[in-house]
Amino acid sequence: MQLETERLLLRLPRLEDADAAYEHLADPEVMRFLGGETVPREGVPDVLQRWLDRWAANGFGHFAVERREDGRFLGRIGINVWDARTWRNATIAEAGEHAQPELGWTLGREHWGRGYATEAAHAVRDWSRRERGIGRLISLISPDNIASQRVAERLGAEPTE
Predict the structure, then answer these.
(1) How far apart are CA 58 and CA 80, in angstroms?
(2) Which single residue of 77, 99, 117, 134 has CA 20 to 30 Å from 58?
(3) Of 150, 74, 138, which Cα lies nearest the Cα of 106?
(4) Beta carbons of 91 and 81 less than 8 angstroms apart
(5) Which residues contact 35 (CB under 8 A, 6 or more apart)?
(6) Across the strands, what pairs with 104?
(7) Is 105 exposed, middle or buried (0-12, 13-18, 19+ CB in 10 A)?
(8) Residue 67 to residues 2, 89, 153, 155: CA-CA distances in angstroms?
(9) Residue 43 DSSP symbol
(10) What 8-state DSSP symbol labels residue 114?
(11) How high is the mean pLDDT in each 10-residue block of the chain (161 residues)?
(12) CA–CA distance, 104 with 93 (Å, rounded to integer)
């Protein structure tokens, strides 16, 4: 499974992405709006395996984002599932009718401000609707995360409380 945009390749994550993914998963500034917990190097393969497990369970999940010009790993963009009863991460099977898909993105700090998140999120949003029949998508964004709010606005999202 892969998607291509003008500048990016979005593909299934691989366990071999661990070193590249560690760059953003261990960065406190990147992780600040994702629960605040950084991931130690030895924990990165477990994170990647969870991403792959979500693909197996749901038929969608996080894409690894690579820059096409040089193959550089930039981060991840994809669809999470939340159980709207508890607002905990779940699978569609676990949450059933309470499953709420979320479009989310995380890039390494050095790749911020270049339009990569918007470009990739557009591709994933369109793919999820066309290929997976997902209608309503949300993006849970901290009120302090202005950059992600701007990405969501460029995607046509409207803020709610």
Answers:
(1) 9
(2) 117
(3) 74
(4) yes
(5) none
(6) 78
(7) buried
(8) 13, 28, 23, 20
(9) G
(10) S
(11) 95 94 90 86 93 95 96 95 94 95 92 94 95 90 86 83 67
(12) 20
